[in-house]
Specification:
Elements lengths: L8 H11 L15 H11 L4 H14 L3 H14 L3 H6 L1 H8 L13 H18 L3 H14 L4 H19 L7 E2 L8 E2 H5 L4 E6 L5 H19 L2 E8 L3 H11 L9 E5 L5 H4 L7 E6 L4 E5 L4 H10 L9 H5 L1
Length: about 325
């Protein structure tokens, strides 16, 4: 089972700070770091490559850096690179170090419970990789309990897994009539997907800054998918006449016929609610047979990976800044 990509904001933020170049110390400042401290700082900041990490580990060992700090540095390295499978593979080392943990040897933890929560998190990832959902739930729950302040770090993974479970059995009503935003008669998803290999649903709002900023890139994506026999349907909430006027105004820069179909999401049979859309913009890729292939943020790299699995000939368009060059 593939482990979904997830990052721990707390640890990732720490890794980012540690990775920043250090300015030369001003005159009359504190003495320079000793060999051990310098080796540890370099180890915590290393992100270049696995080989570079191993060199930093070797230097740290020679300088007397503790096994605890080295393990934490490896964890930060993989967290920052979003290598969850590699983190799961570190489980034996974490279990071995769990009983030997000394707070004074830690490079990143201020309380023991934060360390134990990360051990539970690693166990959760390992269980997820093995397809053991009950064990995953047990370990991730314990991680929440041990370190509530890191809850925001674990929540995205839990939310993603729950969403995937719902999407796995979800059935959309392809006969639902959809009112065009610009002009024309009502259409159904069945009509829009006829003869297509998939349908991309794009949920957006003119009152979302993210939607406004990403609209040029989405337009390029929609044109690319349309040329690859994938229907693109953009749905705006039928919230009020004012909002719909704002939506039409936002689309004007795209021309008289922006790529894809632009329709209203039904208030009473909302596709956004059925698909559990909580943020805008959101993309949902639906196969010709109605299977949900992707549900998430447009910037998620797995969206394009899913498209390539569907049709290897699809090429990602250049971003708006690149097209302007």
């Amino acid at each position: 089972m593939q482990i979904p990509a997830v990052i721990l904001p707390l640890c990732a933020a720490l890794a980012t700070v540690l990775a920043q170049p250090t300015a030369p110390p001003p005159a009359n400042s504190a003495p320079a770091l000793g060999p051990r401290e310098a080796a540890l700082e370099q180890l915590l900041a290393e992100r270049a490559s696995p080989a570079a990490l191993e060199r930093a580990v070797a230097n740290a060992c020679a300088a007397g850096v503790s096994e605890q700090a080295i393990l934490e540095a490896r964890f930060l390295y993989h967290i920052d690179r979003r290598e969850d499978a590699a983190i799961a593979a570190m489980l034996p080392a974490f279990l071995k170090q769990r009983e030997a943990f000394k707070l004074e040897d830690s490079a990143i933890f201020s309380v023991t419970e934060d360390w134990l929560a990360v051990v539970e998190y690693v166990q959760a990832l390992a269980a997820l990789g093995a397809g053991d959902k009950p064990a995953f739930k047990s370990h991730i729950t314990e991680a929440f309990w041990l370190s509530p302040r890191q809850a925001a770090a674990y929540a995205p993974l839990v939310e993603r897994l729950r969403l995937e479970d719902v999407m796995r059995t979800l059935q959309l009503d392809f006969a639902l009539p959809l009112t065009p935003l610009l002009a024309g008669e009502a259409l159904t998803l069945a009509q829009l997907r006829a003869g297509k290999q998939a349908v991309l649903l794009h949920f957006w709002s003119p009152r979302s800054r993210e939607c406004e900023a990403s609209l040029p890139d989405f337009s390029a994506t929609a044109a690319t998918l349309d040329s690859n026999n994938i229907a693109v349907v953009s749905l705006v909430p039928a919230d009020s006449a004012q909002l719909l006027d704002e939506a039409r105004a936002m689309l004007r820069p795209l021309g008289d016929k922006p790529p894809g179909a632009w329709v209203l999401d039904s208030k009473h049979q909302s596709l956004a609610r059925k698909l559990r859309v909580q943020n805008l913009p959101t993309l949902v890729l639906v196969s010709a047979t109605g299977k949900i292939l992707f549900n998430g943020d447009p910037t998620d790299e797995s969206f394009w990976e899913t498209l390539h699995q569907l049709d290897a000939s699809i090429q990602r368009p250049r971003s708006a800044p690149d097209r302007a060059k």
